[in-house]
What we know:
By secondary structure, this protein is mainly alpha-helical. The chain is 75% helix and 0% strand. It contains 5 helices and no strands.
Amino acid sequence: xxxxxxxxxxxxxxxxxxxxxxxxxxxxxxxxxxxxxxxxxxxxxxxxxxxxxxxxxxxxxxxxxxx
Length: 67
């Protein structure tokens, strides 16, 4: 799935993101707007992960869920 598809299906994906990263707020998810880079940034901010670690988590989540 490319980033455009992620943005297009973001409303449906929010629940899955919330399950994986429960510390993200609804406001966080609204601001992410389906952007991989914004999601990575929010995960870094909330969980204190390094950028490469957060990127791996997001990419693993996308692969696991076929997003």
